[in-house]
């Protein structure tokens, strides 16, 4: 079903119709003459590489951006909204990839944010009614939260589930979901898909963005492919396949998902011995060799990230030692870890990996000021040369080094984070969910970069919830269950069944 074919049909069958929509930013044309329709009461998935225009289109629908050209019809009438609150009143709700929550507010306040219930008299909120309704609704959905606790007390997965409940409860005609499963367990994903099917059965349209091809084909009725801001094609999911979609996304045939790793694995480079933190992890010991990618598997809450943060001295530990090249290290803070050649690329790139309001150049150079140049004076020429080198090395698509990091696609933001940490030439690179929310083309680029790092002798600790990626990229895998290493798998032994057996506590 091509865009021209969409326009030939009656608009009445569409809940949303895009007619020649364009949107530009300085140096970037995010959307270019986009035209297609989205039918009522279906699950319509948008796919494309990072920077293809998916998030921009969502923000135009949601009123965060105004289109430069073209128009959008909502249920047959021109859509004019001035922000998310206005969109919600119109009948459009959105679940953001980066959670749209206020940590210091309570769960109840976040749940009703933007559509609070006011009392019959005066300007005050009816907290009792909101509390009663929230409890009833959560009970209907099979969920339980302490509504009086602050949002910051919830895990990422719990906060994500609450955002989904908030969107479902708004009685919207259209719900936009941007990478909603990126922080969810398999059980929570099944819960989400069940809710999506219920919404479709009620005639509500779900517009869904995901880079996970397997889940796209589980729920999609229609798939629209965007590339470089242009509408490539809209098809019924039953009439296409994963290879076809990937080819449309990247504009070329993908002959392999994971590049071949050719470097030799050397001697033991890095050791963690007897790491303990009561209630979080215990008896953690492992070795990592030069040029090796050691995968770390486990369910959400198993303690994988917490172990990595304690290695970096970002979180405390009760006991344990770290060795690099046979030498015991004294790591008192993050700067000690970096000085000794150990760096961590965090799971949440926007909140922990980047300073979004600063430029790409500032973000890349941030660590180098203290750990490369080691001077009270800024060496502008050397810094500029370093930034240009890293942008070329990691193929960061950016109009200029002075471009703000917040304007980049998720994949290019991740490349900036990798550039920042690789600029200090580490010996050990800890990657926590390195391709979360990144398209297949950019994932492949990052895989090749990981192998190039291994070629230079860098040892990589890969914490990953993507089972296929973990299997495809790891030389060896350790599996964490309830804060303990439950098992270790060599290259020939790694399989999803073997990993899950250990992950749930099996022998």
UniProtKB/TrEMBL annotation:
Pfam families, per database record: ABC_tran (PF00005)
Keyword Nuclease: no
Superkingdom to which the source organism belongs: Bacteria
SMART domains: AAA
GO molecular function, one term: ATP hydrolysis activity
One GO CC term on file: plasma membrane
Protein name per the record: Sugar ABC transporter ATP-binding protein
Gene3D superfamilies listed in its UniProt record: P-loop containing nucleotide triphosphate hydrolases (3.40.50.300)
Record-linked CDD domains: ABC_Carb_Monos_I, ABC_Carb_Monos_II
Listed InterPro entries: AAA+_ATPase (IPR003593), ABC_carbohydrate_import_ATPase (IPR050107), ABC_transporter-like_ATP-bd (IPR003439), ABC_transporter-like_CS (IPR017871), P-loop_NTPase (IPR027417)
Cell compartment(s), UniProt: Cell membrane
Record keywords: ATP-binding, Cell membrane, Membrane, Nucleotide-binding, Repeat, Translocase, Transport
Topology term for the membrane: Peripheral membrane protein
Organism of provenance: Candidatus Pullichristensenella excrementigallinarum
All copies of domain ABC transporter, residue ranges: 16-253, 263-507
């Amino acid at each position: 079903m091509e865009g021209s074919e969409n326009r030939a049909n009656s608009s009445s069958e569409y809940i949303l119709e895009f007619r020649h929509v364009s949107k530009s930013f300085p140096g970037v044309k995010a959307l270019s003459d986009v035209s297609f329709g989205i039918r009522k009461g279906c699950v319509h998935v948008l796919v494309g590489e990072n920077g293809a225009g998916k998030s921009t289109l969502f923000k135009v629908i949601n009123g965060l951006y105004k289109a430069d050209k073209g128009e959008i019809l909502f249920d047959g009438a021109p859509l004019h909204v001035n922000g998310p609150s206005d969109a919600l009143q119109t009948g459009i709700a959105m679940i953001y990839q980066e959670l749209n929550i206020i940590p210091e507010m309570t769960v109840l306040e976040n749940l009703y944010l933007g559509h609070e219930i006011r009392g019959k008299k005066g300007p005050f909120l009816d907290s009792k009614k909101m509390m009663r309704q929230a409890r009833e609704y959560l009970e209907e959905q099979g969920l339980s939260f302490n509504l009086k606790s602050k949002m910051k007390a919830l895990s990422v997965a719990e906060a994500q589930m609450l955002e989904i409940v908030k969107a479902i409860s708004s009685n919207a005609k259209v719900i936009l979901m941007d990478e909603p499963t990126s922080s969810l367990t398999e059980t929570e994903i099944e819960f989400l898909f069940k809710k999506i099917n219920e919404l479709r059965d009620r005639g509500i349209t779900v517009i869904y963005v995901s880079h996970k091809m397997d889940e796209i084909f589980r729920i999609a009725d229609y798939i629209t492919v965007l590339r470089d801001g242009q509408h490539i094609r809209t098809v019924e999911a039953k009439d296409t396949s994963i290879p076809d979609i990937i080819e449309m996304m990247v504009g070329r045939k993908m002959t392999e998902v994971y590049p071949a790793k050719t470097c030799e694995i050397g001697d033991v480079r890095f050791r963690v011995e007897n790491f303990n933190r009561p209630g979080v992890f215990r008896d953690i010991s492992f070795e990592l060799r030069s040029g090796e990618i050691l995968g770390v598997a486990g369910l959400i809450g198993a303690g994988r990230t917490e172990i990595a943060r304690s290695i970096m001295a970002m979180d405390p530990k009760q006991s344990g030692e770290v060795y690099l090249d046979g030498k015991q290290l004294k790591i008192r803070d993050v700067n000690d870890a970096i000085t000794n050649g150990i760096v961590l690329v965090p799971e949440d790139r926007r909140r922990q990996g980047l300073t979004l309001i600063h430029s790409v150049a500032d973000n890349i150079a941030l660590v180098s000021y203290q750990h490369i140049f080691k001077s009270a004076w800024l060496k502008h020429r050397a810094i500029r040369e370093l930034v240009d080198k890293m942008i070329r090395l990691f193929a960061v698509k950016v109009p200029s080094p002075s471009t703000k990091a917040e304007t980049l696609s998720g994949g290019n933001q991740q490349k900036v984070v990798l550039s920042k940490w690789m600029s200090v030439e580490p010996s050990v690179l800890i990657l926590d969910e390195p391709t979360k929310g990144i398209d297949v083309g950019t994932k492949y680029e990052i895989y090749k970069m990981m192998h190039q790092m291994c070629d230079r002798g860098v040892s990589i600790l890969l914490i990953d919830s993507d089972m296929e990626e973990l299997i495809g990229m790891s030389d060896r895998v350790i599996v964490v269950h309830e804060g303990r290493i439950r098992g270790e798998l060599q290259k020939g032994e790694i399989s999803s069944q073997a990993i899950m057996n250990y992950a749930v506590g099996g022998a």
